[in-house]
Structures are given as C-alpha cells and as structure tokens.
Amino acid sequence: xxxxxxxxxSEGSGKTTQIELLSEYLEEKGYPVLATREPGGTSIGDQIxxxxxxxxxxxxxxxxxxLLFSAxxxxxxxxxxxxxxxxxxxxxxxxxxxxxxxYQGYGHGLELETLHAITALATEGLKPDLIVYLxxxxxxxLQRKLAAHNAGHAxxxxxxxxxxxxxxxxxxxxxxxxxREPDRxxxxxxxxxxxxxxxxxxxxxxxxxxxxxLARPGLPNPGQMGQNQLNSACQAAGSGDPARVNEQLAxxxxxxxx
Length: 258
Ligand code: T5A
Known about the structure:
Blueprint: E1 3-9, H1 15-28, E2 33-37, H2 43-53, H3 62-86, E3 90-94, H4 97-107, H5 112-123, E4 130-135, H6 138-150, H7 164-180, E5 185-189, H8 194-214, H9 227-237, H10 242-251
C-alpha cells in the first residue's frame, strides 16, 4: 500500500510546519514516510530552486518559471517520489503540480491547458491521492512569512516579493481547483491554531489510509468514511484479510469492532 499526499497553499500557510507534525505522527505509527519539497528534493532540483527563487532574477519570464519548476519536478518524480511509492511508502510533498497551475496559471495568467500538458510530461501522469490545501488569508500568510524571515528562520524569495494582487489570484485559483475535485482536495482553514489544523489533516489522511487498505479486490471502498459506512466496510473486510485490515485500522486509532 502506498500513498502520495501533497500540500498546497499560499505563502506562510504552514505547510512545512504541518508536514513535520504529520510525518512524526505517521512514523510513530510505523509507516515508512518520506517528506520532501518542491522545487528541490534532488541535486538538480536544488540547483533549479536557487535560480527560481533568487530575488535578483527579477526579469524571469512566467514561461521560464513554468518550465524550470517542471524540470525540477521531473527529477523528483522519477528519482524520489516514484521509487518510494513503489516500495509501498507514504510520500508527503510540500508543493507539487498544482502549485504551477496556481502560481504560473492563475497568478501569472499562463494558459492552463498548456500547463497541464507540461505537467503531464514532468510527472508522467502521477497524481496525488490527497491534496491538503491550507487556506490562509493572503495578508496573514505574508505577515507570518515576513516575521519568520526577520527572525532568520525563512528566506524572502523572488516570488514572495510579488504584489498582493498576484497572491490573491493564486489563492482564488487554488479554491477553484479544490471545488472541482472535492474527493481529492482537503481544504482546511489555515488561520486556525497549529494543533487544530493538524487534527483535521490527520483525520483526512486516516480516511485515505483506511480506504487504501480496504480498496482491494473483493472489498468495498469505504468512500466518505462515515462511522456506519466504516463499520460496514470493516465487517465486509473480515471476509478478506481481517487480521491485516484490523491491524492497520488499530494503528490508525480508527474505531472498528468486528
Ligand atoms: N512555486 C512553487 C511556484 O510558483 N510554482 C511551482 O510550481 C512551485 C512548486 C517556493 C515558492 O515557489 C512557488 C511558490 C513559492 O512562492 P518556498 O520558500 O518553498 O518557495 O515557499 P513556500 O512553499 O510558500 O513555503 P513558506 O515557507 O512560505 O510557507 P509554509 O511552508 O507554508 O509555512 P511554514 O510552515 O514555514 O510557516 C511559516 C511561518 O508561519 C508560522 C510558522 O511558525 C512559520 O514561522 N505558522 C503559523 N503561525 C500561526 N498560526 C499557524 N497556524 C501557523 N502555521 C505556521
């Protein structure tokens, strides 16, 4: 069983913080977790990141941005993400293809259809099982990031420097994408305290993990994971491989009595 989870959001939405908390939690439960980020995560990706985020590269064109982010993505998908998923692991990725659609598409106005084509090339069609979108007010997010920068904990990069209207278009883009695919996107109000956000993320991830365990031939897909549905699915799973299913459910603290 593998699971690919990406984290999206505008500046200062708290992705890095929440990924660290989730990663610790899943590792404690015994899952093989790999946390990584875009752009970066590979040697070539890190070099591309330095070019992309260098505050002095003010004349970079949106098309160049889209291609460079995608080049870094091709590397990380092929060298890091796919191999870990193939070993049955969980990948937590700070930003992925939807960042390109939000920033270069909705933010800069590049054609979405073209970006989808470039992204398909870079990812070889690999899509996340779950996209956690942390929705923060643009001004609040930028203030958080600036405070972290002033305290020496974060960089203030070329894209942070964009005007507020750009960041608002990015947020609007994210919300539109999330509304189109509600099964894949988990939208969380990221203006809340850290632990409240983390609890919502864990609930969403648990549901996906349980669904992944149960979505095997002959077993029902638990879908929205209401308690009744979950119980029925667990009972039905008893006719398949009950020991394994229950062991996994217990690890997740998900109620299931048979
Ligand atoms: N980009 C990226 C594109 O344009 N196209 C693409 O295809 C891709 C992949 C990457 C930039 O590249 C752009 C998007 C970005 O602009 P980055 O430095 O990696 O640059 O920036 P981000 O991914 O945006 O990461 P940030 O550092 O801005 O924010 P995070 O990771 O979302 O937030 P985090 O966890 O570091 O938190 C920021 C601060 O807020 C505090 C934290 O303690 C920290 O100080 N905080 C909270 N404070 C109060 N309440 C909460 N709930 C808080 N959560 C966090």
